[in-house]
């Protein structure tokens, strides 16, 4: 495996299908949320080009398979921006082989939720030593997203001090927009505190914490597959007992479990966007999160 990776890194180059200009500083981002955050930070800096890996990924990034194109992108990188918190296991072995590649971890100092069972104890996270039992879907909290933006800005300033003024200015403007988003979400969507829901998997724990929701259970089994008949029966019983009427799946979900449960107990199935793919649009994160909150509000009010 190591030989293959070295081969790719030596012989392949490029940020995308066209060659990157030699005078550009190339910042590679691991996947969509940190890509959007970074685009906002480098807006107007013509000498920085932002690329992203995992471009077509719509499912859980933990299952992502590294491609030759990813190796090409990293080979041209002057910096790599990652979500952190253990999300980028798919690429850790690769970027560690790239000599002198600065890595910006956006999860530094963010309180992480533990994934073990349904225990939501939090722990401080610093540096690059990840507890892989932690829930790494930190961007699905606007409060966390603001910290990620600050971390990325600080990391890029260290790597590219010549752009400090523009990066800092862009960061301030973007944080003002995210503050406005946070305020709008809290003022418009008054979610009943303690309302219980069932989600596809545990990606939405941070959002639920922000909203005061309780994720009672998940559709996906612990091994990432469709739940067993026993699990389905338990889920139906649990939702009846707790009077839970909302199940949330994701755009790429093609299983039958959610429909079976919904039909059995008379619940509704809603689709949430985990912010894993979309347009290269500066306001994309804000728009997706607004829609997610609107859907949850309609489902549980």
How would you sum up this structure in a few lines?
This protein is α/β, with parallel strands linked by helices. The chain has helices at 2-11, 32-41, 68-75, 89-95, 142-159, 164-188, 205-211, 229-242, 257-265, 284-300; strands at residues 25-29, 48-52, 79-82, 103-105, 112-113, 122-123, 196-199, 214-218, 246-249, 268-271.
What does this structure look like?
There is one protein chain. By secondary structure, the chain is of the alpha/beta class. It has ten helices and ten strands. It has helices at 2-11, 32-41, 68-75, 89-95, 142-159, 164-188, 205-211, 229-242, 257-265, 284-300, and strands at residues 25-29, 48-52, 79-82, 103-105, 112-113, 122-123, 196-199, 214-218, 246-249, 268-271. The strands form three sheets. The protein has a four-stranded parallel beta sheet with strand order 2-1-3-4, sandwiched between helices. Strand 3 (79-82), helix 4 and strand 4 (103-105) form a beta-alpha-beta unit. Helix 5 (142-159) runs antiparallel to helix 6 and helix 8 (229-242) crosses helix 9. The model is unreliable at 1-14 and 117-131 (pLDDT under 50).
Radius of gyration, CA atoms, in whole angstroms: 20 Å
Contiguous low-pLDDT stretches (5 residues minimum) are 1-14, 117-131
Kindly report how far apart the N and C termini lie.
51 Å
Oligomer: single chain
**In percent, how much strand structure appears in the residues?**
5-15%
Q: What spatial order of strands do you see in the largest sheet?
A: 2-1-3-4
Count of β-strands = 10
- The secondary-structure element order is HEHEHEHEEEHHEHEHEHEH
SS field, number of helical segments: 10
Percent of residues in helices comes to 40-55%
């Amino acid at each position: 495996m190591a030989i293959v990776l070295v081969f790719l890194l030596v012989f392949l180059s490029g940020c995308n299908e066209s060659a990157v200009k030699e005078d550009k500083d190339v910042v590679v981002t691991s996947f969509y949320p940190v890509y959007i955050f970074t685009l906002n930070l480098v807006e107007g800096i013509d000498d920085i080009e932002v690329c992203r890996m995992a471009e077509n990924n719509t499912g859980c990034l933990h299952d992502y398979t590294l491609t030759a194109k990813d190796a090409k992108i990293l080979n041209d990188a002057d910096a790599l921006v990652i979500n952190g918190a253990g999300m980028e296991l798919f690429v850790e072995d690769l970027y560690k082989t790239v000599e002198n590649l600065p890595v910006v971890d956006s999860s530094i100092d963010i309180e992480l939720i533990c994934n073990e069972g349904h225990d939501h104890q939090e722990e401080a996270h610093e540096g690059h030593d990840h507890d892989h039992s932690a829930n790494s879907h930190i961007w699905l909290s606007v409060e966390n997203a603001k910290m990620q933006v600050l971390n990325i800005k600080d990391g890029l300033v260290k790597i590219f001090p010549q752009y400090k003024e523009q990066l800092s200015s862009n960061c301030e403007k973007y944080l003002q927009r995210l503050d406005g988003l946070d305020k709008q979400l809290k003022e418009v969507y008054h979610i009943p505190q303690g309302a219980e829901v069932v989600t596809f998997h545990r990606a939405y724990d941070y959002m639920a914490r922000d909203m005061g929701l309780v994720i009672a259970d998940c559709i996906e089994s612990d091994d990432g597959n469709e739940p067993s008949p026993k699990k389905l029966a338990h889920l139906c019983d649990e939702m009846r007992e707790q009077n839970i009427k909302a199940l949330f799946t994701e755009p790429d979900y093609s299983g039958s479990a959610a429909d079976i449960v919904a039909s059995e107990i008379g619940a509704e199935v809603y689709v949430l966007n985990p912010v894993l793919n979309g347009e290269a649009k500066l306001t994309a994160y804000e728009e997706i999160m607004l829609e997610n909150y609107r859907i949850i509000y309609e489902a549980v009010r």
